[in-house]
Amino acid sequence: MDPTVTIAFSQECAGLGEKIAIGLQARSITLESRIFPDGESYLRFGADLSGQDLIIVKSCFPQQDKRLIELLFALDAAKELGARRTIAVVPYLAYARQDRRFRPGEVVSNSTVGRLLEAVRTDLLVTVDVHQRESLKNYRIGTVDVSAMPLLAEYLNSMGLDRPYILAPDKGASAHAQCVASILGTEYTHFEKRRDRVTGQIVMREVDADIEGRDAVILDDIISTGATIAEAARIVKKLGARKIIAACTHALLIGDAMESMVKGGITEVISTDTVAGSTSKVSVAPAISDSLRQHL
Ligand code: R5P
Question: H or E segment at 249?
């Protein structure tokens, strides 16, 4: 065990945090957290941090503002408490989708998140399948985007699917589909999807793919409301697919996401533990540990 490396995580990331600590054979400590009656967060590190390379594991899924501010508090305090380096492991990076000014006057939240991490002297950000990898180029701190796709592919491979066909719901997810398809040794394609920037409505064009009687995997980085996957599933069903699996890295599953995907024809949802839940069949811990090893 390296005595200069410490991993801290709060309750909601305990499963993933412990796995990373075991993978790195590093000391793990809890980041004690409480909520004051007025809603403000209280945080406390349960060990001495002086001279440590401190890894803080905190995924910023909803409630993302709360988790983000707690992450910033913790990173800031860690340096005050004498940590030599701070590494923020943020498996789900909140606000990553607002990485551009799509309409005049819009706030580019993703850039502000980068500046906030820099302001609290974060040395390195490690995230998983960030919405657009290019968006991290604007960050003035070290960044690593780890891919969960090989791990998802390994799980899909173990499912014994019948001649699986991999589909990305839009061009943005096409590289993920390509990666998984190449590991499974099968075909892939992507839909043409357009989202109305005002109403959020999506329109998806039919695809021409030989899916009849085969198992289909619709693969995306994020499932939020499930609308994108449900729409893709409806089209895939019309093409005669047998089972239709939805697979993603980050399953936010907001509101009745699950119900609408099932209505669309999805038979099973598979995700990772960047957002821990009932669909998290795959842990990203090995990929994060491998990446951290190169930076310690
Ligand atoms: C957008 O481009 C993302 O890759 C996902 O497709 C999107 O965030 C999914 O959102 P929803 O589940 O609400 O359709």
Answer: strand 244-251
Number of folded domains in the chain?
A: 2
Q: What are the backbone angles phi and psi of residue 93, rounded to the nearest 5°?
A: -95, 110
- Is 110 inside a domain boundary? yes
pTM: 0.96
Q: Is the distance from the beta carbon of residue 170 to the nearest atom of ligand 1 less than 6 Å?
A: yes
Q: Is the CB of 226 under 6 A from ligand 1?
A: yes
Closest by CA to 56, choosing from 25, 115, 106, 16, is 16
Q: 82 and 104 share a domain?
A: yes
The answer, yes or no, to whether residue 268 has pLDDT greater than 80, is: yes
Residue 3: band (very low, low, confident or very high) from pLDDT cuts 50, 70, 90: confident
**79 given a catalytic annotation:** no
Domain extent, residue 49, equals 2-147+283-293
Ligand 1 atom, smallest distance to 226 CA: 12
Q: How far apart are CA 190 and CA 76, in angstroms?
A: 42
| pLDDT tens string 163-207 | 999 999 999 999 999 999 999 999 999 998 888 888 988 889 988
Identify whether residues 111 and 159 lie together within a single domain. Answer: no
